[in-house]
């Protein structure tokens, strides 16, 4: 079955244009990182390229090569900020694989031994909590 193309009315494209709010932890010329509003664990961040693609399958490899170093940088900061034992990186392609927002994004989720994950796209977190978590991640990023 053919897949649809990129639609710049998706929610992350609106976040990039500043049309809807986000709690950002990092941004540069090519990339933005912000808190997931329905975190699967405290400190759940999404990293997206500014350049639009539906997911990894149609992304320009040059975009991927600029995005992955940011995923690494933010993952290290999240691990430090939340004193995590590990970090889960997830990326879904198409609805059958669990994708719900059709602008390429990488999930960065801190993991602690013996602590389970909350459901994907589960409960909305309080904005003040997300801001407090973002402050911790920004502080860890500032140390690198
Ligand atoms: P995926 O299934 O990989 O497409 O996941 C999309 C993710 O985006 C989910 O984890 C949602 O909680 C998250 N999400 C949806 N809307 C927003 C938003 N406005 N700001 C931040 N995260 C969002």
Polypeptide structure, described:
This protein has 3 helices and 5 strands. With 144 residues, the chain is α+β, with helices and mostly antiparallel strands. It has a single domain, classed as HIT family, subunit A. Strands 1-2-3-5-4 form a 5-stranded antiparallel β-sheet. β1 (24-27) and β2 (31-35) form a beta hairpin. 31% of the residues are buried. Bound molecules: adenosine monophosphate. Residues 11, 22, 36-38, 46, 92, 98-101, 121 line the site of adenosine monophosphate.
Describe the structure in brief.
The chain is an alpha+beta fold and 144 residues long.
Which sheet architecture does the biggest sheet show? Answer: 5 strands, antiparallel
Alpha-beta content class: alpha+beta
Strand adjacency order, main sheet:
1-2-3-5-4
Q: How many helices in DSSP terms?
A: 3
In total, the number of strands is 5
Kindly provide the radius of gyration, computed on alpha-carbon positions and rounded to a whole number of angstroms: 15 Å
Alpha carbon gap, first and last residue: 45 Å
Order of helices and strands: HEEEHEEH
Which cofactors or ions or other ligands sit in this model? adenosine monophosphate
By CATH's scheme, which homologous superfamily applies?
HIT-like
CATH class: Alpha Beta
CATH architecture title: 2-Layer Sandwich
CATH fold description: HIT family, subunit A
Count the domains: 1
- Overall form: globular
Mean pLDDT: 96
* Poorly predicted regions: none
Share of β-strand residues: 15-25%
The proportion of residues forming helix, as a percent range, comes to 25-40%
